[in-house]
TrEMBL record, chains A, B:
Recorded family membership: Belongs to the diphosphomevalonate decarboxylase family.
Name of the protein: Diphosphomevalonate decarboxylase
Domain Diphosphomevalonate decarboxylase-like N-terminal: 11-181
Biochemical pathway: Isoprenoid biosynthesis; isopentenyl diphosphate biosynthesis via mevalonate pathway; isopentenyl diphosphate from (R)-mevalonate: step 3/3
Species in which this protein is naturally found: Pseudocercospora musae
Length: 384, 384
């Protein structure tokens, strides 16, 4: 049996605060506008991926959560092709290295969260795939260069190659060479950012984001204005808010941009609905929590991706107000039982929003407590 | 007892197909953009109003559905002031006329539909008030001139002073003198337009339209684009569709503009939601019905005002497909029992949308079948 080379990584989930929606080039996954996300802690949510290569392997394979995946799609192929080309360069420069670029790859991947939770698993998945192969090939490539490759697998994957607060710049080049992610600030710059994910009970999902965003580009009368006017200003303002650790601006921009994105979905023909009555109740609950602030500033900010789950950002110092308020009405749901959840005290002051509480009790199946985290972590735990 | 002068009218409800949302002058109810509506038949939905005047009356009074209403608001006062001024002119020109302009008014009004149904009752109400007083005063004023007055009571009321297909032009003058309604086409030009109203079960209403629209103007990043770019083009296209009796264009514009308006509501900070899961199911049901068309043209068009009720427009020739499809899943609800409803045959082909059907069965409390109709009708039936 031939030698097996192997490398493994963990990669994080990221949740956008300025949303990616719309491609100017679907083949290369080039977006109509920039986006910014928070990388979430891999202690809570992560994809674990092992990439191996051996002359014994007869074809490229990908396994996710023990199920064989189709690897022939143009997006996965683009990632593999680019990574092999980089390895070939390295081998060319150092002829003593094994010729791994000529061998088939075996990629084994596992998420530590249920796929049904509707979290953006493809982002973590493609980031882990690219990072694991880059480790296997011992590429000197920077995270930003790798983000250009991961982007071709799944747009938002480019933001999971870094930790903390990450921007994906739209880029101007036709070949996408400058449509890459960069770190706005590290997790350690603003480490007290927390996220409470409210996982909504399974409902039949609306159109996929891949199909939906191009319908929006083609039919919305508002979208072009969002992409060309609204988002560029918000990108700058959000970067500034992050640099200044200005939660008020961060929160207002986050909520506005989530609503603006979903407004463009609704303005699509036929309209796309990702928010349902449960999502609306989560928004009203956040507004209620924010109304408790003595200076009328936000304690928390909601955001929704292409699904009904709410992600609620807040600062650690307000955990008992924000997570506590949700715990007071959602205690008993899966997710509070860990050490982090047990630590949250139900907030006593939840009154006058019984209607909202009832909707959430019916519509939310579980919660996930997490925080801002770092970028992909190399690991010696290999999957096989 | 002094002589009583009296005049009565019926006035219709109108449902916009290009939506009014946003005031550029809240005091005068001057809109940020034009709008177009269909006047609905007074055989089905109407406000009945009697205006009386007598030297015995000691104050202006208004009664709606047997409940005394506050008449001191600036909007009602503006209507009364303008109408009295016009009467004064008439009296000045013909001194033989009674000096009614100096006397107090008693206005008695009744809607033949439940206020709780969430139909735009203020439009019919102010149109009836203005029309009844104009009749009482025997004003020679044209419907368009009266629309300028009714607009100051409730913006969309100006569109209920005419029948058929009615536009309210934005106007350019600061005093609002050119912000008036005009008939795009009479009901008889395109008489086979039908409307099925799906009344959603009472839910706590979001913000009022008066407050909501100004929040949108103040906070939405998309609204200005809607008002200045999107609506003006649609106004022209919709007038053309009506002139040409082009249901396909009418339907597509109607659906797009409803979605565009609700998108701007969602883009408001805090977001305004009028559509709920029941509304969404009504949209999906219309899309299903339209998918049955052999040439992929719309059989029907949905539109939603500031609430969850759907109004579904269709042509008489497609009654069995459109109303029939809704009857097949909503049979047994109040509203089908009249002669018009009994005539509708449940459409047999409703399959594969059980999820949508279930949502509608739970969320819709009654249906109203109606059609395009004419403008206010003078009547000798007086309320007192």
């Amino acid at each position: 049996m031939a030698e097996i080379h192997r490398a493994s990584t963990f990669a994080p989930v990221n949740i956008a605060i300025i949303k990616y929606w719309g491609k100017r080039n679907p083949k290369l996954n080039l977006p109509t506008n920039g986006s910014i996300s928070v990388t979430l802690s891999q202690d809570d949510l992560r994809t674990h991926t092992t990439a191996s290569t051996s002359s014994d392997f007869t074809e490229d394979t990908l396994t996710l959560n023990n199920e064989s995946q189709d690897i022939s799609g143009a997006r996965t192929q683009a990632c593999l092709r680019e990574l092999r080309a980089l390895r070939k360069e390295v081998e060319h420069q150092d002829p003593s290295l094994s010729k791994l670029s000529d061998l088939k790859l075996k990629i084994v991947s596992e998420n530590n969260f249920p796929t049904a939770a509707g979290l953006a698993s493809s982002a973590a998945g493609f980031a882990a795939l690219v990072r694991a192969i880059a480790n296997l090939y011992q590429l000197p490539t920077s995270p930003t260069d790798l983000s250009r490759i991961a982007r071709q697998g799944s747009g938002s994957a480019c933001r999971s190659l870094m930790g903390g607060y990450v921007a994906w710049q739209k880029g101007e080049e036709e070949d996408g060479s400058d449509s890459v992610a960069y770190e706005v600030s590290s997790a350690s710059h603003w480490p007290d950012m927390r996220a409470l994910i409210l996982v909504a009970s399974a409902d039949k999902k609306d159109v996929s984001s891949t199909a939906g965003m191009q319908q929006t580009v083609a039919t919305s009368a508002l979208f072009e204005h969002r992409a060309s006017e609204v988002v560029p200003k918000r990108m700058k303002a959000m970067e500034k808010a992050i640099h200044n650790r200005d939660f008020e601006s961060f929160a207002i921009l986050t909520m506005k941009d989530s609503n603006n994105f979903h407004a463009c979905c609704l303005d699509t023909q036929p309209p796309i609905f990702y928010l349902n009555d449960t999502s609306r109740a989560a928004i009203r609950m956040c507004e209620y929590i924010n109304s408790l602030h003595p200076d009328d500033k936000p304690y928390c900010a909601y955001t929704f991706d292409a699904g009904p789950n709410a992600v609620v950002y807040y600062l650690a110092e307000h955990e008992d107000i924000v997570a506590g308020a949700f715990k007071s009405i959602l205690d008993g749901k899966t997710g509070w039982e860990g050490p982090r959840g047990q630590h949250v005290k139900p907030h006593p002051g939840v009154e006058g929003i019984e209607h909202v509480a009832e909707k959430l009790q019916v519509g939310i199946s579980r919660v996930i407590l997490t925080s801002v985290g770092d970028g992909p972590r190399k690991t010696d735990e290999h999957l096989c």
